[in-house]
Structure formats: structure tokens, C-alpha cells
């Protein structure tokens, strides 16, 4: 407002000076007095009035250039009052002020468009930041990285905003300097015009004093026509120059707007491409996360199955222990059953010995035969009992094929462990099964049953190794995803910052 008002005051002062000069040249032509003395007196009075008007206009221009805002307003009010009283001065002022006002309005409109465009870019940038924050809020580790990146981005944005403010201030200072230069040029023009007017007035006074009324009238008419022609030429030249400047400014503004629009379109395309890449990355991450969940569920199911198999193995062990106890009990019962038979045989033997006392040889032979029979009967009975027990076990195993398969697997694993540890199979079998009395015809030794504890230990070790490998793979994949997301985010940040720089003209 201050600059515009000072420019308007300077232009008004210049127009007032021009109007005063024109009035001074026009008034003597209208006053045709026959008496030379009266004409000279009137001319002298007119010259004094014109000198006062020129002095007042110059004082108003100087006051407008050096006064503060309040003084400037007072000077403008006085100048407006003068304009209301003098229509030619008002027209000249309007012709001088309109180009400056148009230039100032165009500059203000350009500044407003720049500020609006900057605000729009800032809003778009804020929307992008909000979208990125919403997208990366799912993972806590990624949130921390995003917060750090957002802090860095905010710092960069603040620095860019400061830089933009500095650029705007610099532009305002440059515009202020341009306006001051224009004002100085206008003041210089006014001073030159005043000098020219003073010279012209002095020449007119000399001519009026030397020549007669007719010569004075002819000279005044010629001078008026020449001044009007010169003023018209000057005004036309000024109008042409102002029009050229305005056209040049409009052309530059249009070119800048087109370049800015092209840069903005390129930025939007780059941002759209980066958005699509981010969406693809997020989809891939979601698919990987779902696969990991499925693998974890599979592992849980495997663990549950292993626990169920463990329980089944425990039940099988319990059943085997029960069978062993039953075998021991049956053997004890058989031994208890055989005791009364042995006692009866002993009694019979004693009776026969008493009856056969006269024949000692026959007695000895009978005793030997009975002893042989007893020795043969005992292992045969034990063989039959063991065969019956083995048949029962075979029937139970045939009724449970799944258990038999698991037992065979356990046997193989146990054999491998025994070979690795260097222990014989018979020691483990003797440690697990109760010792039987040594007889002449021993039953065949059963193959050692596999230990479920060893099998479980091996399975657990394998599961632990698999879980460790999966964890390592998941950690590596997470690190790779975080690196890719960070790279994409850095690219977007660089694109936004470069777009802001292009748009602001830095």
C-alpha cells in the first residue's frame, strides 16, 4: 500500500505539473486584449499563478516521496481536492496512474498465485505423509523407522519452507528496489519537465516583451501547437513503451506458468508411479506374512501331532510294561502250581523207596528215570507257556498295525543309537526285562523294543533346527523388506523435494 500510494502521488504530481504547463500555454491564446499594457499585466499575473501551481505540485511530489504513511494520506487528500477542482489535471493523473496500478495489480496477482500454489503443494505433501503413516502403522519396527524418516522429512520441509520464505523476501526486496527506481525515474522526469517548463516560460516572457501583440499571439499559438504535439508524442511513446512492457511481462508469466504446469505434471506422474510401486510392495509383504502364518500353523499342527504320537507311545510303553508284569505273574503262578506236584512226586518217591528196599538196584534205576522225566517235563512246560505268551503278543500286535509300525521305527532308531554309543543290544534288553532262570532249552530272545524317549529327543532336535532356520529366514526377509521400503520412501521424498524446488524456481 505504501509503495502504491507513493507511486500514485508521484504520478499525480507529474500530471499536475504537465497540466499546469498546458494551462499556462493555453490561457494567453484565449485572452486577446487590444491594449498592450493590460495584456502584459495579465500575462504577468498568469505567470505568477502558474509558478505557484508548479511550486505546489513540486512540493506535493517531494512530500509524497519523503513523507510517512499518514503524511502521504494527507498529501493525497489535498491532491485529490485539487483534482476535483481541475478536470484537465484529473484526466492527466488518470492517464499516468492506470499503467502503474495495472503493473502493481499484476505483480500482486502473480504473488498470490505463487503462494496458493505453494500451499497446495504443502497440502499434497501432508496428505502423502498421512497415507504413508497409515500404511506403515502395521509393524512396530517399521513404525519406528517411519517416525525417524518423518522427523527427517519434517526437518527438510522446514528448511525448504525457510528457503522459500527467504526467496519470497528476496523477491519482495527486488520488487521494492524496482519500484524505488521507477519512482526516482519519475521524479527525475518531473524535474526535467519543470526545468523545460521554466526555460520555456523564460523564452516566452522574452518573446512577449520584444514582440508586439500579433507576433506574441502567433508565437503563442505556434508554441502551444508544438507543445501539444510534443506532449502527444511523449504520451504516445510512453503508452507504447508501457504496452510493450506489459506484453513482455504477460508473455514471461505465461511461459513460466506453462513450465511450472509441465513440471507439476511430471511430478504427479512420478508420484503416481511410486505409489503403484509401494502398493505392489505392500501386497507382496502381505502375501509373505500370510505364508508365514500358514507355515506357523503347520508347525503348530505338527507339534500337536507329535504330542499325540508321544502320548500314544507312552500308552504303548504302559501296555508293554503291563504285559511284562503279566508274564512275570503268570510265571510265578506256574511255579506256585508246580510246587504241590513236586511235593507229591517227592512223597511218591519216598513211598517207592520204602516199598523197594529189598531191591536197591531197581530202586536206583526208578529214581534215575523219575529224575530224568522231571527234568524233561519242566523245560517242556516252560516252553509251552512261553509259546502261549508269544502267541498272545502276536495277536495283540496284529490287532494294532499302527503300533507295530511305530515300534519298528523305534527299533531302528534305537539300533542306530546303540551302534553310535557302542552298547550291545543284550545289555539294554537285560536292563529292561527281568532275568529268567537258566534252563536247558531257553526260548529265543526277543528283539529289543525301541525307546520312545530317544525317538522324541531326535524329533525335538529336528523341530528345533527347522524352527531356527525358519526364524532366520523370517528375520532376513524382514530386513530386506525394511530396506526396500526405506529405499522407496527415500525416492518419494527426493521426488517431492525436487518438485517443490522446481516449482519455487530454486
Automatic annotation (TrEMBL):
Feature: compositional bias, Acidic residues: 35-52
Basic and acidic residues bias spans: 161-178
Annotated segments matching region Disordered: 26-53, 161-188, 338-487
Chain intervals with Low complexity compositional bias: 179-188, 352-473
Full protein name: Uncharacterized protein
Amino acid at each position: 500500500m505504501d509503495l502504491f500510494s507513493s507511486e500514485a502521488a508521484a504520478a499525480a504530481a507529474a500530471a499536475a505539473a504537465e497540466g499546469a504547463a498546458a494551462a499556462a500555454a493555453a490561457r494567453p491564446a484565449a485572452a486577446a486584449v487590444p491594449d498592450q499594457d493590460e495584456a502584459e499585466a495579465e500575462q504577468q499575473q498568469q505567470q505568477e499563478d502558474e509558478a505557484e501551481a508548479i511550486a505546489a505540485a513540486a512540493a506535493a511530489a517531494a512530500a509524497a516521496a519523503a513523507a510517512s504513511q499518514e503524511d502521504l494520506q494527507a498529501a493525497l487528500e489535498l491532491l485529490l481536492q485539487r483534482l476535483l477542482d481541475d478536470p484537465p489535471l484529473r484526466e492527466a493523473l488518470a492517464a499516468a496512474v492506470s499503467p502503474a496500478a495495472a503493473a502493481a495489480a499484476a505483480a500482486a496477482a502473480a504473488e498470490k498465485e505463487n503462494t496458493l500454489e505453494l500451499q497446495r503443494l504443502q497440502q499434497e505433501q501432508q496428505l502423502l505423509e498421512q497415507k504413508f503413516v497409515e500404511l506403515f502403522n502395521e509393524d512396530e519396527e517399521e513404525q519406528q523407522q517411519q517416525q525417524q524418516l518423518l522427523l527427517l522429512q519434517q526437518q527438510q520441509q522446514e528448511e525448504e519452507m525457510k528457503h522459500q520464505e527467504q526467496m519470497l523476501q528476496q523477491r519482495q526486496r527486488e520488487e521494492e528496489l524496482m519500484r524505488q527506481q521507477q519512482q526516482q525515474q519519475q521524479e527525475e522526469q518531473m524535474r526535467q519537465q519543470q526545468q523545460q517548463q521554466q526555460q520555456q516560460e523564460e523564452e516566452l516572457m522574452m518573446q512577449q516583451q520584444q514582440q508586439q501583440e500579433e507576433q506574441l499571439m502567433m508565437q503563442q499559438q505556434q508554441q502551444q501547437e508544438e507543445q501539444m504535439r510534443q506532449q502527444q508524442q511523449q504520451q504516445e511513446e510512453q503508452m507504447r513503451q508501457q504496452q510493450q512492457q506489459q506484453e513482455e511481462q504477460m508473455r514471461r508469466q505465461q511461459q513460466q506458468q506453462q513450465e511450472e504446469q509441465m513440471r507439476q505434471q511430471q511430478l504427479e506422474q512420478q508420484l503416481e508411479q511410486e505409489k503403484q510401486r509401494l502398493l505392489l510392495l505392500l501386497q507382496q509383504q502381505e502375501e509373505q506374512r500370510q505364508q508365514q502364518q500358514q507355515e506357523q500353523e503347520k508347525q503348530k499342527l505338527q507339534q500337536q501331532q507329535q504330542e499325540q504320537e508321544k502320548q500314544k507311545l507312552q500308552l504303548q510303553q504302559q501296555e508293554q510294561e503291563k504285559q511284562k508284569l503279566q508274564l512275570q505273574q503268570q510265571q510265578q503262578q506256574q511255579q506256585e502250581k508246580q510246587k504241590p506236584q513236586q511235593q507229591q512226586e517227592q512223597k511218591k518217591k519216598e513211598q517207592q523207596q520204602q516199598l523197594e528196599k529189598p531191591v536197591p538196584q531197581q530202586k536206583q534205576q526208578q529214581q534215575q528215570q523219575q529224575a530224568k522225566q522231571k527234568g524233561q517235563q519242566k523245560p517242556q512246560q516252560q516252553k509251552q507257556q512261553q509259546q502261549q505268551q508269544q502267541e498272545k503278543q502276536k495277536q495283540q500286535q496284529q490287532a494294532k498295525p499302527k503300533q507295530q509300525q511305530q515300534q519298528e521305527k523305534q527299533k531302528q532308531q534305537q539300533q542306530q543309537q546303540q551302534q553310535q554309543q557302542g552298547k550291545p543290544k543284550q545289555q539294554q534288553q537285560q536292563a529292561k526285562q527281568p532275568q529268567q532262570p537258566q534252563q536247558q532249552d531257553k526260548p529265543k530272545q526277543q528283539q529289543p523294543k525301541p525307546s520312545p524317549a530317544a525317538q522324541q529327543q531326535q524329533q525335538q532336535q529336528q523341530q528345533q533346527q527347522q524352527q531356527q532356520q525358519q526364524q532366520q529366514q523370517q528375520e532376513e526377509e524382514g530386513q530386506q523388506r525394511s530396506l526396500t521400503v526405506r529405499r522407496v520412501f527415500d525416492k518419494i521424498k527426493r521426488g517431492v523435494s525436487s518438485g517443490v524446488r522446481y516449482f519455487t524456481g530454486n
